[in-house]
Amino acid sequence: MPTDLFEYKFINSQVVNSTFLHNKEGCQLDFSDDNNAYMIYFVSFLGTLAVLPGNIVSALLMDKIGRLRMLAGSSVMSCVSCFFLSFGNSESAMIALLCLFGGVSIASWNALDVLTVELYPSDKSGKHYGQVTCEGCKSFFKRSVRRNLAYSCRGGRDCPVDQPHRNQCQYCRLRKCLRVGMRREAVQRGRMAQGPPSPGQCPAVPGDPYGGRGCLSSFISVLLRAEPYPPARYGARALQPGVVVGIESICELAARLLFGAVEWAKGIVPFFPELPLSDQVALLRLGWSELFVLNAAQAALPVHAAPVLAAAGLHAAPVAADRAVAFMDHVRLFQEQVERLRVLQADAAEFACLKAVALFSPGVNGCEGNEWEQAQVALQEHVRRRHPAQRGRFGRLLLRLPALRSVPAPGIQQLFFSRLVGETPIETLIRDMLLAGAGLGWP
């Protein structure tokens, strides 16, 4: 109930100063000066602004030093800043400590948030970047791809990647994400279709030499991107109307196809380059002749000139009659296999899968056969989508590979590469190319 003095309540009232319980020099708030009011807002602004460098530092260093180290370091610095903040005796020092606390505390929260998601993922999972994964692997894969992070393995590149151990080795974790089919390009696009497209949803893009890459699997996309120069263009150049194909041109084209096969294998990231060098050499030593025959069929190598080329080679270096007959049989086998592959009219994706099956032989030490199986699955799915009416096409394509082994590698070397390397084995040339690690300059 108002009194007679109510209207005089705020007359001649003024707050002179306000101090802490224990008087400290420099820690007073005096509202008699208008500048101190602006100082309060300025300090609040600095504390908010300090969050920005904390976010930047946590984003740059979290993957380099680790989540646990980031969490521990930022937590310790937060405690230290709080400790000195309680004993501060100057405005500038307290403002600096306040900003430091804001920056390191947000870095600590970021590290804690990442650890919580990865160590205790939600039971809810969905299709992320092409595969059904948990939220932890989704965030790890997205962060690794967007920042283009490169990891290293301290073990033998075979670390266990399961829920209890998946944070121990980021290299093997990213490797497994790619192996199961998570797509890098899906991260860049930000979204992708949730289900496999029907055959009618995969039209070939006009002018696309790969016949519509948009509906290809991630594994086939990796194989196609690894091509240093599409082999089909070599054949188009060699078979132009009015162009006379000579022996030297055929040998040059054959050399390009061989070198292209090696460069293609080196470009199958991360599947081939992550193998030890000895395994890479072993795979190419076993499969270079099959890769060459497949490239020859795809590039439309003029096999009709093979007998002429063989005759020229025999004329330059005469051999015994029985060896000459055996050599001509090898030439005939080579012609037959190339022609049978051409009859199938395989597209670039089918050739890429066949070459991957021929390359990743499960018999080589260190090769588990995962890529070999993945190439067959990708080929089967591609044939089902692109040629739904040809139910036996997958089997016909796959059965071409055992027949390719009937073409002896020494016969191919003698036919096409004797003028290039002489008596030097092709296997030695392949090893030198892998050791050099230099790319070729393609026209």
From TrEMBL:
Output the Pfam families linked to this UniProt entry. Hormone_recep, zf-C4
Main localization, broad class: membrane
Compartments, as annotated in UniProt: Membrane
Q: Which CDD domains match?
A: NR_DBD_COUP_TF
- Output the Gene3D superfamilies linked to this UniProt entry: Erythroid Transcription Factor GATA-1, subunit A, Retinoid X Receptor
Identify its membrane topology class. Answer: Multi-pass membrane protein
GO MF assignments: DNA-binding transcription factor activity; sequence-specific DNA binding; transmembrane transporter activity; zinc ion binding
Q: Where is the NR LBD domain?
A: 215-437
Residue span, Nuclear receptor domain: 93-189
Q: Name one GO cellular component term.
A: membrane
Going by the UniProt record, its keywords in alphabetical order are: DNA-binding, Membrane, Metal-binding, Nucleus, Receptor, Transcription, Transcription regulation, Transmembrane, Transmembrane helix, Zinc, Zinc-finger
Matches recorded under InterPro entries: MFS_trans_sf, NHR-like_dom_sf, Nucl_hrmn_rcpt_lig-bd, Nuclear_hormone_rcpt_NR2, Nuclear_hrmn_rcpt, Znf_hrmn_rcpt, Znf_NHR/GATA
Q: Where are the transmembrane segments?
A: 38-61, 93-112
PANTHER family in the record: NUCLEAR HORMONE RECEPTOR
User: What name is this protein filed under?
Assistant: Nuclear receptor subfamily 2 group F member 5 isoform X1
Species, as recorded: Amazona aestiva
